[in-house]
Amino acid sequence: MLSRVAEELSKGGGTVVLLHGNADPDALASAYAVQRSFPEVSIWVPGGLDRVAKVLAEELRVETIMDGSSPPRARLLVLDTSGPEQVPEGIDFSDAIVVDHHTRNAKWDSTTLYYCDDGKSSCSEIVYELLKLAKKDLPREVAMALMLGIITDTGFFKYARPGALVAFAELMSTHNLQMDEVVRLVDLETDVSEKISQLRGAQRLRYWKVGDHIVAISQGSAFEASVCKAIISLGADIVFVGSQRGDNFRVSARATQAMVRKGVHLGKLLGSVGSETSNGGGGHPGAAGITGVGDVEAILNISAEHAMKFLKKLDSSGDR
């Protein structure tokens, strides 16, 4: 099916690559690689870029379309987006191509082409495979972008699967790239506002002990994923951090790799919460999110209940 994606992108008529809100380096790197490899490709980021992705865009001079509620008339390619709820409402996806690496989402099944490989640690790996199938020669800066996508989505390889290491090594050796050339783009000092969000998240957290494990929740107004990581570092095993913006909410979740090895899959867990609350959730075993309309405190409590239910089953089975 990935070959079909390559065939479609090679046709005339242009392509608009759509990325999820607050797009991360993996999403932007994937889009940039497609833009540099296929004709008439524009990158649409209506929800903006995160801090590191902005650095990547500036470094490589990646041109993006930030504004607009609807894309220009062209083929639509959705990259690194686990569900339609992560992009603006009202977009017609019936003729879209979707390429993703999160937990498979039935909401994409109505699209023309839906390729999902949740065995990949990053979307950049899939795009790298796509470009090899299309027999594209990668410029050095495209290789660097894909390496950046891989390294950030694997948490500097802490959560990498073997394929991520193989792809990274291939890109590194083929294009004579050194590790420091990539790392310098993501080795940014934590912003003061992010530090404050982490501290406030720690102040507001609530937690439950289930056997030998701890589930925690907290609320804030920004940097949900960063607050999750901070609370994990304090000793929690599974964390949900949310924010409220009017009627809308956003929740990020993280779990330790020890929890993932014991069977925790946050993408599936938040997918269930999304179905239960008529919202959209999904992601990876150790990192996931859910967005939608509703009360964030209620969503956090429901998410924690799902996690504790899993841990109680784990405890009763004797697998600690």
3D architecture notes:
The protein is α/β, with parallel strands linked by helices and 320 residues long. It folds into two domains: 2-186, inorganic pyrophosphatase (n-terminal core) (Alpha-Beta Complex), CATH 3.90.1640.10; 197-316, Diaminopimelate Epimerase, Chain A, domain 1 (Roll). The protein is built from twelve helices and eleven strands. Strands 6-7-8-9-11-10 form a six-stranded mixed sheet, sandwiched between helices. Strand 10 and strand 11 (287-293) form a beta hairpin. The radius of gyration is 19 Å and the shape is globular.
Topology:
Layout: H1 2-10, E1 15-19, H2 25-37, E2 41-44, H3 51-60, E3 75-79, E4 97-100, E5 113-116, H4 123-133, H5 140-153, H6 162-174, H7 179-186, H8 192-204, E6 206-210, E7 213-220, H9 224-234, E8 238-245, E9 248-255, H10 257-261, H11 266-277, E10 280-283, E11 287-293, H12 296-316
Parallel strand pairs: 1-2, 1-3, 3-4, 4-5, 7-8
Antiparallel strand pairs: 6-7, 8-9, 9-11, 10-11
Key structural traits:
320 residues; alpha/beta; inorganic pyrophosphatase (n-terminal core); Diaminopimelate Epimerase, Chain A, domain 1; five-stranded parallel β-sheet; 12 helices; globular
